[in-house]
Structures are given as C-alpha cells and as structure tokens.
Amino acid sequence: MELEEAFRRIVGQHWRLIVCFVVFGLAVAPFIHLRAGTSYTASARLVLDTPDPKSRTEAGAIADTAQAIATSPAQVQAALSRISVQRDPINVAKHDVTVRPLGTSGVLQLSVSDRNAQAAAVIANSLAAQVIRARLDVSSGGLQSALATIGKQIDDLGGGTSSFDVQQRAALEAERANLLSNAAFRPKPTVISPATVPRHAASLRWLPDLTLGAILGLILGVGIAGLLELIRPTLVGDDVLAREFDTPLLGRLHGDPSNASTVESLWLSERIRFAVEAAGVKSVRLLSAGPPADLESLAMSLTVRARSDSGNGQPIEATDEPTAPAEARGGRPGRAVGIDVFDLRTWSTNGGGTGLVLVSPIALKKNHLVDVNRVLGVSRAPVVGLITYERRDRAPGQRQLDEIVSQAKTWSRRHLKSRSPE
Predict the structure, then answer these.
(1) For 39-200, CATH number?
(2) How far apart are the C-alpha atoms of 339 and 354, rounded to whole Å?
(3) Structure pTM?
(4) Per residue in 229-260, pLDDT tens?
C-alpha cells in the first residue's frame, strides 16, 4: 500500500475520529490542572564544596549531584522531620523538588512546590540545609577519618627521642598539615540565599501541556483509525476503485447521483456512449457498487441528455443501426444509448447486448465488493465503466425533500417511457 493511499484511507476517511481524539487530548490538560489545584514554588540558592565549573557540562554535573541528594526520600524525610511538616516524602521527592544550575557559576537553585506558600519556603530552606549536610558527610567524612588515624599514630609514637621516632612523628605531622591545607582551599558549602514565602501562585504550564495533549490525542486517533482500516479496509480514490473493478473511470459526480448537474450529465452521457461503442454493446444498466443510491434520477438525467444529443427530441431506444449524421441531426455524432437501472429480478442474459456501468461512492468498504462481485457473476454482463460520486451528509428534512423529488423524477421517467413511440 502506497503512502498516499494509506493517508487517504486512515486520515481522509477517519478525520472526524482523529479530531475528536485531538480535542480530547486538549481537554485533558486543563482537567489535570484543575485537579492539581493552586501551587506555590519557593527557591533557595546554595553552593556545594566543589571547584568552580569551567563549562556548562561541569555545572550540569554538579547540579545532578545536588538533584540526586535532594530527591532522595531519606533526605526529604530528614528535612521534613526537622521542621515538623507533615508531607509524603516520596511524593515530595518525586514531584515537588527540582535543582538546576544557574549558568556556569556553580550556584544551584533548589525549588520546592507546595499547596501552601509558607510550607514551600520552609521545606526549601530545610532541604537545602539537608543537602549540604549530606554532601559534607560524604566529602568530609574521609578527611576526619584520615586525621583521626594520623593523630592515633602520633599518639602511639609517644615522646620517644630516638631519631626514628622523631622522623616518623615529623612525617605524620607534615601529612596532617597537608590534609588540613587542602581542606582549607576547598569551597565551603553554604546556603547563599534562603527561600522566601512566594507571593503568587506558580504559573501553570498550559502551552506545553496542551501541545503534549494534542500530540498524544493525534497519535491515539491515528492509531485507532489505522486499526479500523485493518479490520474493515476501505477503497478510497477513483484510481483505486477503477483498478479494483478493472474497468475505465468515466467520471466523478460532485454530490449524490440524484443531484447530477446538467454539465455532469452531458459529459457522462458522452463518455458512456464512447464506452458502449468500445465494448460493442447496445445499452447499459447502472449498478450501485456501494450503499443504496438513487440511480433512477441519474439514469433519467443521462437519458434526457442522450435524447437531446440525438436531435429529434424523442426518447432513444437502443438499435444496431447507426443514427443520422450529426450535421443532419444538429447534435453530436454517434449512436444513442439506452440507459436504465439494473434490476436483478427482471435481468435476462439473452442477447448479451447490455453492459453494466458501476456507480460507487469515492470511498467504498471492501465488504461491499462481495455483493457486487456476486451480482456481476450472476449477470455475466461486461462492465463498461465506473462512475464515482462524493457522499455528502444531509439534514433529515433535506433527505425527505430529496425522496419526494426522487419519486417525482421516477414517475416522470416512467411517464416519459409510456409516451415514447413504438
């Protein structure tokens, strides 16, 4: 299946369904925001005991470290315990805490969202302090352990006066001084800007959420439309239908067959005449290849056009003899064609001088092909062409009016036949 055909089948046939899912996706975002309620965001700024970053990559790595500590449920629980605020630490850590770097400065911004403005500020300050404590426990824990080990070794040497004891004690003192010197040059982690109580609620992310909802709705709608086409395939397009029926396309009606315009009837009657001459038949019958359609009106309109072309103003009966030249008739050259509606109850295969013209909507479900092929197999008549039309939904009142007009046209056509010369 070509991409264009797939697009016509999935999007062209089910665009209403896809639009409904897109609208549903757009409606989900406001519903989620209404369920979430008003939220306040408080932010604190802090630095860790890390060297100043030289690039955004290094700044991002420092922020990732702080993010990993701040979103730990254990650290959130410790911060909440210090301020006696009752919140779910897992939910807060998962949804309400964010850490981001401020450029390449090494300064981090820790933000906490909460439904209460004062609680948001208190939690943000407590969590920032907890992040610093957790970081110091990791980075300074090794230093304290090393200093304690060196101090114990110095104490074990005691006040010995031997040259070996003096050298060992001097080496340990130098190592301790080196550790303390390195620790002194490391940045001091601290909160440089505590969080304040926010005055306004956090702005809702309408545009990103609406865009995401529309995209998800579009994906879901296209997926379901594709599934429907997989279950009940549709033939869409003049070329596809003509290829499926293995017959030439005579034309397309821009509306229901019962409402064919004069111009459409004129060129359709001409093309039917050419197709009949090419197929070597005397007359044609219109056969609906899809849902029931008013073919009586179309047949009458085509017959009137053919009669007008004949130049004598009388209904045309199929004949083997050619008509008079166009110049003598004042019309187009060629033989008049008898056009009627196919009726299986009165159909007879004797003679073999009648062909079929299929009349199908521009989009046809494949299950309709079973009935059409069954009728074609029973009739054994050649298919000389295909006429397609665009189905248009009409209001109930318009349908009733169309039925009245169709009945009037049918009566007029039958009356016209009854008055035709023998």
Answers:
(1) 3.30.1890
(2) 10
(3) 0.51
(4) 888 888 888 888 888 888 899 888 888 787 77
